[in-house]
Amino acid sequence: MQAEQQQYNFQVVKWFAYMACVYLVVGTGIGVYIASELAWPVLNFDNPYISFGRLRPLHTNAVIFAFGGSTLMATAYYIVQRTCRTRLWSDKLAWFTFWGWNLVILGAVITLPLGYTQSKEYAELEWPIDILIAAVWLVYTFNFIMTISIRKVSHIYVANWFFIAMMVMITYLHVVNSLAIPVELFKSYSLFSGVQDAMIQWWWGHNAVGFFLTAGFLGI
């Protein structure tokens, strides 16, 4: 067991898994609360910070990206090590993805109830957080691919191909959909407008489901 722990980095995997459990409970709890607000509007207590309109994007981000993202990162880092029979290429980059991803989630928890949003479904977070998402995701992708490059087996297990597809496409989709002109620290305007903006947004929305919530989980 000790030799296995030295060969693989399971600590970052465990912490991603722990946080996934936390975000599942918190995210679904927020969902139950805002659903209750629809039935009993008095539950918003005339407080804008806990109104349905502000908590609903926090709920979706918590369930999809906090819980789902942490789950994908935990399993990707676990599977690539076991199927390639090698340790993660960089432990430091792995921990950067852990702390960076949780910083993204903290940013969402702070900004969304305050009303800072781009008003895009599944892409509500403002430009500074979008930049952090891109940085964390690129590091995650790079570390994953570099781990495959030092594998000790010739075959690349099929799960890793699903993860690579997810990582590459989500990078592309996120960057294009998040292109914006910043005007303040937490205010920006989309680079696209009108119908084009709507088309780009739902090109992201539907393919986020297709790659983040489908290809990635097929890898699991």
Q: Can you tell me about this structure?
A:
- There is one protein chain.
- With 220 residues, the chain is mainly alpha-helical.
- The chain has a single domain, classed as Cytochrome c oxidase-like, subunit I domain (Cytochrome C Oxidase, Chain A).
- It is built from 7 helices and 2 strands.
- Strand 1 and strand 2 form a beta hairpin.
- The protein starts with a helix and ends with a helix.
Give short descriptive properties of this protein.
single chain, about 220 residues, mainly alpha, Cytochrome C Oxidase, Chain A, two-stranded antiparallel sheet, 7 helices, about 5% strand, globular
Short recap of the structure:
It contains 7 helices and 2 strands; from the N terminus they run H-H-H-H-H-H-E-E-H. Helix content is 72%, strand content 4%.
Q: What is the average per-residue confidence, as pLDDT, rounded to a whole number?
A: 95
Stretches where pLDDT is under 50 for at least 5 consecutive residues are none
Number of domains: 1
CATH architecture designation:
Up-down Bundle
The CATH homology group name: Cytochrome c oxidase-like, subunit I domain
**Termini gap:** 24 Å
The CATH class designation is Mainly Alpha
- Portion of residues in beta strands equals under 5%
Strand count = 2
CATH fold label: Cytochrome C Oxidase, Chain A
Range of helix content = over 70%
Q: How would the global form be characterised?
A: globular
Count up the helices.
7
Q: What is the C-alpha radius of gyration, as a whole number of Å? A: 19 Å
Order of helices and strands: HHHHHHEEH
For the report, how would you describe the main beta sheet?
Answer: 2 strands, antiparallel
State the secondary-structure class.
Answer: mainly alpha
How are the strands of the largest sheet arranged?
1-2
